[in-house]
Amino acid sequence: MDSTNQNEPSSVGEILRKIEEKADTxxxxxxxxxxxxxxxxxxxxxxxxxxxxFLITDDFDVEAEQFxxxxxxxxxLETAKFFARQTTGELERLAEIQxxxxxxxxxxxxxxxxxxxxMACNSSLGKNGRVLMQRKELIDSYIKDPYEPVNxxxxxxxxxxxxxxxxxxxxxxxxxxxxxxxxxxxxxxxKRAHGISTATIYNDxxxxxxxxxxxxxxxxxxxxxxxxxxxxxxxxx
Length: 237
Fold this sequence. Notes:
Elements (H helix, E strand, L loop, with lengths): L11 H12 L4 E6 L12 E2 L1 H7 L13 H12 L9 H10 L7 E4 L2 H9 L7 E7 L7 E2 L6 H6 L1 E4 L5 E2 L6 E4 L4 H12 L3 H4 L3 H31 L2
Antiparallel strand pairs: 1-4, 2-7, 3-6, 4-8, 5-6
């Protein structure tokens, strides 16, 4: 058991009950993470991928240097203008960079705890994951709705949190542990009961590319098998 998390469920049903106890109030947004990230330098923070780039730099101390991530992001956006096809708003540009796998100070959340559960269970299968339940009223001014959301954003019911610190320190009572042994059963439940799977969550060309990279060996094996069969049929024709 993770010593920093007392919410240790022992079954898929118990995980769902723990989340639903608070989810029914409509006061939360959610984030699923495949690991707990309790070790230094993460220390359990929920952080943007841009903040993490500075956090893990050996020769830079984000606290000692009074790091201002929004200054970094502003410079980044100025540079991004030279690569953009058209003029857009700041949040739209950040969302586009985030969507293509770039670094921003946006932290992905969802309004659907089932999506967060999928995210917590979809990788790092040998490690415990976590679902973070963030009370909206505590960070209301930092919550941003996607501008003209694309298919994946709609499927994931995404919202962004743009915190000026670059991270959120979650309340331990609002962190639900997802034991490694329950990740596969949870994914099976989500697909069977709610139709949530890789194909529905990553439902765009970027999702296909991610799926393709994972399945290339399978494609090669299938093709080799078919080629051998055709060769055998030809020789015995």
